[in-house]
Amino acid sequence: xxxxxxxxxxxxxxxxxxxLKIPRPSKNEDKIRDYVIGVAERLGCEHKTDAxxxxxxxxxxxxxxxxxPAVVLQAHLDMxxxxxxxxxxxxxxxxxxxxxxxxxxxxxxxxxxxxxxIGIASMLALMEAQDLAHxxxxxxxxxxxxxxxxxxxxxxxxxxxxxxxxxVDSEEEGVLTIGCAGGSDTHLYLPMARSASSGDAxxxxxxxxxxxxxxxxxxxxxxRGNAIKLLARAxxxxxxxxxxxxxxxxxxxxxxxxxxxxxxxLVLAPGDLDAVRTELxxxxxSIRKEFRPAEPDMELSLEEVARPAEAWDDTTTSxxxxxxxxxxHGVLSMxxxxxxxxxxxxxxxxxxxxxxxxxxxxxNRSSAATALTALLQRIRxxxxxxxxxxxxxxxxxxxxxDVSSPLLxxxxxxxxxxxxxxxxxxxxxxxxxxxxxxxxxxxxxISIGPQIEFPxxxxxxxxxxxVGTFYRIxxxxxxxx
Length: 481
Prior knowledge:
By secondary structure, this protein is an alpha+beta fold. 30% of the residues lie in helices and 27% in strands. The strands form six sheets. Strands 1-2-6-3-7-21 form a six-stranded mixed β-sheet, with helices on one face.
């Protein structure tokens, strides 16, 4: 055990301490699901797993409360796996190493997994609670939320009986979330032609690192740098005056994380090496000054390397840089209905090379279905102009706010009694509520959570005092319902 297990409320934090030891990457949630099932069986709770791997655990009503409506609590089992490049960590087997930073718990050079590990732990604590008055409870643990909400999309139609749902995947203290954006990913595949490098050519690896990254939904408005876009910007500018060929370009790790690092390997004539170095440093200095308030730790490294035997030809190099430069990234429009809320955005998330093609992944969000369609068409047009094959993946629906919700009124009253008046809002990110609401018509839903900052990045941290407040709101809401 670590210091985490000694925090209050003890039942919640002790489960989170155990969760930190369990690998739970998207699409490989078997071990964390087994842990939850183990708790359920120890308590004598009925459980069921559907074909996709989603799990529901049912806890009977407490004595005298059988007539109360069934309430669903919902969290996802997987986590985003991001780490700094200089950190030796294998997410498939290594435990997350927590550390305390004042009022916060964070990890050591990796994501913490408080998204949605705190939600899982809160549900397990409620499952164990013997002193809580409540009606029938259904604890829904979905899989693969972080790579496209595919677990919720595949949720079996007979898993739930309740029509009141408390999603515990929100990340803002004092906010009751009643809506979210819909989204869809686009893959672009650019064919690459290669040719041999000349015998006297030089190799140069260019890397941008030290960016903050973050969640491509909830952090997109912070206007942080995208390492892929910034590297492509610098390379494109230099290519206009000094010829080179690319032998590789890679950056980003996940569709819902803003890329923090990117690198490219250049092949160029010996006489151009010094000029390209000088121009890249000049371009980076301009970028660094531009982004200094948001990215004070951004770095550029240039390293002469052994000449690659092959490189992309001139046409492929030009198309690749043009494509990555032309694709959108960041906030594209703000909501007219909810001031301060991002309506539409795109995250240029991943670039890598495989099977003779340059693969580019963009993650796109909007609370307006027509705006999302227009954005996907814009990306398709840009890819088509560059000669790329474009594939749009099935998206997920948004969740339309219902300000007249009876559940919202109940949680507002509880929140005010526990922690003062709450803010009612929507989130520019995908929540499984939108999908679950489509599958189970009439579901009254709300999303709450503690303060979790910088999710999907190694800076992720959870504010300790807010976890206790969040848990008290949960228990009192269940008592009220």
